[in-house]
Design goal:
Elements (H helix, E strand, L loop, with lengths): L2 E5 L3 E2 L5 E8 L9 E7 L6 E7 L4 E3 L7 E6 L4 E6 L8 E7 L4 E2 L3 E5 L2
Parallel strand pairs: 2-11
Antiparallel strand pairs: 1-3, 3-8, 4-5, 4-9, 5-6, 7-8, 9-10, 9-11
């Protein structure tokens, strides 16, 4: 069974960098054809796709967030990480990591951007 767990600070100040880690168990993140996604849901809004890192290490980002987003991985820890720069209160959301192939999502972590 594949499990994902998000971790990171729940409060980030405006203009700073949001950094979250997703720890994966049950499968290696380098396993062929597994794609690892970050998704968020702002208050009272729908889900928004942020980006993904593939088993090969290739990354793809939402055009609207691409200039501020970086997704990387640590294969030794079986983790992948989201960094979102220059955050504003509009980046306040519940952030999820997910793997469609594994049909698995993390439980989500609330991140609030506030001074």
């Amino acid at each position: 069974q594949v499990q994902l767990q998000e971790s990171g600070p729940g409060l980030v100040k405006p203009s700073q960098t949001l950094s979250l880690t997703c720890t994966v168990s049950g499968v290696s993140i380098t396993t062929n054809y597994y794609y690892w996604h970050w998704i968020r849901q702002p208050p009272e809004k729908g889900l928004e796709w942020i980006g993904r890192i593939e088993y090969s290490g290739s990354t793809y980002y939402s055009p609207s967030l691409k200039s501020r987003t970086s997704i990387s991985r640590d294969t030794s820890k079986n983790q992948f990480t989201l960094q979102l720069n220059s955050v504003t209160p509009e980046d306040t959301a519940v952030y999820f990591c997910a793997s469609p192939r594994a049909a698995s999502w993390g439980q989500g972590t609330q991140v609030t951007v506030s001074a």
